[in-house]
Amino acid sequence: DAMVIQNPRYQVTQFGKPVTLSCSQTLNHNVMYWYQQKSSQAPKLLFHYYDKDFNNEADTPDNFQSRRPNTSFCFLDIRSPGLGDAAMYLCATRATGGYGYTFGSGTRLTVV
Amino acid sequence: RKEVEQDPGPFNVPEGATVAFNCTYSNSASQSFFWYRQDCRKEPKLLMSVYSSGNEDGRFTAQLNRASQYISLLIRDSKLSDSATYLCVVNEPWTGGTSYGKLTFGQGTILTVHP
């Protein structure tokens, strides 16, 4: 029944080693979002896709990239993770004209 | 100024208590409003939407005052299972003028209900 699936649930990566987080959805929603949530902080929007159109938040570091090869999948690439990038990464989807957002269960990233 | 600002908390209340959370938002063009609940190390989950007329869902009542840009959540008869972080969330229009917007979250208020 899971509709927005994030893999893996937990990811440990080495400082400076590229890492990719994935999100897939079975809802056929046009819009997909990536949020970063650090400990005791609010989720913060990194970027989103409207179909294949990519929209970056102004303060998202260049170290973060994203790919959306098709409607169902979206990837978050962190090119050179630093200790400060340790966080929960949340994927969410929404249909245009729709009301609700659907969140995945998140990937918790640890940088060692 | 934060875009969405909440009571800092934490709130520590006994079972059966009534507790209220407040939230203000800065973008007057915000279109829709929500309360989300987040359990420790889990994703946020929608608790309820907030309408101008006020709305109730069981023990939970939400209010919106657009003129004051203020949102509230009231929890009556608190249960142990209500212990969580409550996030005030605002749907802001995307600057590109599209119809789908983006969610902006408050920092959250931690609620602990004790026996």
Describe it:
The complex is a heterodimer of chains A (112) and B (115). Chain A has 112 residues and is an all-beta fold. Helix content of chain A is 0%, strand content 52%. Chain A has strands spanning 4-7, 10-13, 19-25, 31-37, 44-50, 53-56, 64-67, 73-78, 87-94, 102-103, 107-111. In chain A, strands 2, 4, 5, 6, 9, 10 and 11 form a 7-stranded mixed β-sheet that branches. Chain A has a 4-stranded antiparallel β-sheet with strand order 1-3-8-7, with no helix packed on it. The model of chain B has no long low-confidence stretch (mean pLDDT 90). Chain B is mainly β. Chain B starts with a strand and ends with a strand. In chain B, a hairpin with a 2-residue loop joins strand 6 (55-57) and strand 7 (60-65). Chain B is built from no helices and 11 strands. In chain B, the strands form 2 sheets. In chain B, strands 2, 4, 5, 9, 10 and 11 form a 6-stranded mixed β-sheet that branches. Chain B has strands at residues 4-6, 11-14, 19-25, 32-38, 45-50, 55-57, 60-65, 70-75, 84-92, 102-105, 109-114.
Query: What is the chain-wise order of helices and strands of chain A?
Result: EEEEEEEEEEE
Uncertain residue ranges of chain A: none
Helix content of chain A: under 10%
Tell me the overall shape of chain B. globular
Beta-strand portion of chain A reads over 45%
Mean pLDDT of chain B: 90
The chain pair forming the largest interface, with residue counts per chain, is: A-B, 27 and 22 residues
Helix content of chain B: under 10%
Strands of chain A, count: 11
Distance between the termini of chain A: 34 Å
Helix segment tally of chain B: 0
Structural class of chain A: mainly beta
Biggest sheet features of chain A: 7 strands, mixed
Q: What does the oligomeric state look like here?
A: heterodimer
Low-pLDDT sequence parts of chain B: none
Distance between the termini of chain B: 37 Å
* Residue fraction in strands of chain B: over 45%
Structural descriptors:
heterodimer, A: about 110 residues, mainly beta, 7-stranded mixed sheet, globular, B: about 120 residues
